[in-house]
């Protein structure tokens, strides 16, 4: 069992272990900065892993490596807010419930178990995804999310931010988290919140054994404190209308920085979500009714955006990380503006998870940049070059290797 507190430190903050950065000028492409209008025949200058200039009349620094992007599209690297690459068995899936004890594990972090050699990481890059937020699996309070860049030789190289969000599940279908009742789940959560604050107020008395027993180990209660102090987002999985409304009540009562995850029936209470200024992380391709969301519909993102909700697109399905850009494209097909779809997979996830130096092409930002053959939300387009922290990364995958190995079979196999 791998357990860590929210203060986990792998000496990994923003821009953790630098890659072999250099000066690069991407010239001639149609540049989409996200924080401003598109730039025809624009230039993006990268120095030591950071963007230093973006514009149409930018002077290329002497000695820079020039990358000609004429006829191409240039965007920030995509950020997948529900990523799997690098996590779980062989980096193909998330962390299951068997990685922890019980269902209350706020101190659990997936960071130490990330595998930089996972086969899913280069696959993510082929989909233009340079950064991911990886969530712990399990019911109720499963732990903290970690933000990673999909490049590096060591775990420390991958991790951008630990404790990116506290993950809580309010229910599945007609029940609460872990199969209990909704009322029971909420009552238990409020008790845990109250105990965490009580422990924080009476630490000295606790050490003298002068307090009553708490509802959970103090290490776990202490891990709740950043969220209860408003210093950490609380990512609450809630799909049905009633669960979404319960999450909004929790946000009000405890002054939490809540982010909704799932929100299949979010469109039903879009105005309430917008009024609470709560962002939503959802999968736009969910349209099949289930016990976890009878009101599923493909224009969920559109209706939430029309109400003024900040929406982050995260398509966690068997297609893997490559499905993210197609999900954004389907959101456009169902009424979302193209610009909002791009923000939903770049700028807005960066803002929601506290990655302020990510998600846009602007001076001072981390140089995660993708050059596309065309519109990234079209099936016909492809990521041709991917830069992470200013370094071009490989787009060669295990799939590529297998294709090359078996594309020309020996004659003895061809005759079969």
Sum up the structure in keywords.
416 residues; alpha/beta; TIM Barrel; eight-stranded mixed sheet; 16 strands; 27% helix; disordered N terminus
Structure description:
This protein is of the alpha/beta class. The protein has a single domain (about 25-405), classed as Metal-dependent hydrolases (TIM Barrel), CATH 3.20.20.140. It is about 25% helix and about 25% strand. It has 13 helices and 16 strands. Strands 1, 2, 3, 4, 5, 14, 15 and 16 form an eight-stranded mixed β-sheet that branches. Strands 6-7-8-9-10-11-12-13 form an eight-stranded mixed β-sheet. Helix 3 packs across helix 5 (about 220-230). The chain is globular and about 65 Å long. The model is unreliable at about 1-15 and about 90-100 (pLDDT under 50).
The gyration radius over C-alpha positions equals 22 Å
Number of domains: 1
CATH architecture: Alpha-Beta Barrel
CATH topology: TIM Barrel
Any chance you could write out the topology, listing elements then pairs?
Elements lengths: L23 E8 L7 E9 L2 E6 L9 E4 L4 E4 L1 E6 L36 H7 L2 E6 L6 E9 L5 H4 E11 L12 H20 L1 H5 L10 H11 L4 E6 L2 H14 L2 E6 L7 H6 L4 E3 L17 H8 L3 E3 L9 H11 L4 H7 L2 H6 L16 E4 L10 E6 L2 E3 L4 H9 L4 H4 L2
Parallel strand pairs: 1-4, 1-5, 6-7, 9-10, 10-11, 11-12, 12-13
Antiparallel strand pairs: 1-2, 2-3, 5-14, 7-8, 8-9, 14-15, 15-16
Helix pairs in contact: 3-5, 9-10
């Amino acid at each position: 069992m791998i357990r860590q507190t929210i203060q986990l430190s792998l000496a990994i903050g923003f821009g953790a272990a630098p890659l072999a950065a250099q000066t690069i000028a991407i010239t001639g492409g149609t540049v989409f900065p996200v924080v401003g209008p598109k730039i025809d025949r624009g230039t993006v200058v990268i120095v030591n892993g950071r963007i230093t200039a973006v514009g149409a009349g930018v002077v290329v620094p002497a000695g820079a490596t020039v990358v000609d992007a004429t006829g191409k599209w240039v965007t920030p690297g995509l950020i997948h807010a529900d990523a799997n690459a690098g996590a779980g068995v062989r980096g193909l899936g998330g962390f299951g419930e068997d990685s922890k004890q019980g269902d209350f594990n706020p101190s659990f972090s997936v960071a130490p178990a990330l595998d930089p050699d996972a086969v899913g990481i280069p696959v993510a890059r082929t989909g233009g995804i340079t950064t991911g937020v990886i969530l712990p699996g399990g019911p109720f309070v499963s732990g903290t999310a970690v933000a990673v860049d999909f490049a590096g030789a060591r775990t420390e190289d991958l991790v951008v931010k630990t404790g990116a969000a506290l993950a809580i599940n309010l229910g599945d279908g007609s029940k609460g988290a872990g199969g209990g009742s909704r009322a029971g789940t909420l009552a238990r959560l409020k008790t845990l919140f109250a105990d965490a604050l009580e422990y924080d107020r009476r630490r000295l008395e606790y050490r003298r054994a002068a307090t009553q027993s708490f509802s959970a180990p103090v290490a776990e209660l202490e891990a709740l404190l950043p969220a209860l102090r408003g210093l950490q987002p609380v990512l609450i999985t809630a799909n049905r209308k009633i669960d979404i409304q319960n999450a909004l009540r929790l946000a009000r009562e405890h002054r939490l920085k809540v982010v909704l995850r799932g929100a299949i029936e979010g469109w039903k209470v879009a105005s309430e979500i917008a009024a609470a200024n709560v962002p939503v992380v959802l999968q736009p391709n969910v349209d099949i009714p289930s016990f976890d969301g009878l009101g599923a519909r493909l224009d969920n993102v559109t209706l939430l955006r029309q109400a003024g909700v900040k929406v982050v697109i995260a398509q966690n399905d068997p297609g893997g990380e490559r499905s993210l850009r197609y999900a954004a494209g389907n959101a456009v097909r169902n009424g979302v503006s193209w610009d909002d779809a791009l923000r939903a997979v770049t700028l807005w996830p960066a803002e929601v998870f506290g990655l302020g130096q990510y998600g846009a092409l602007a001076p001072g930002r981390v140089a995660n940049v993708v050059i596309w053959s065309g519109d990234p939300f079209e099936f016909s387009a492809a990521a041709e070059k991917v830069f992470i922290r200013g370094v071009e990364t490989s787009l060669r995958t295990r799939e590529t290797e297998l294709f090359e190995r078996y594309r020309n079979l020996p004659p003895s196999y061809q005759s079969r």
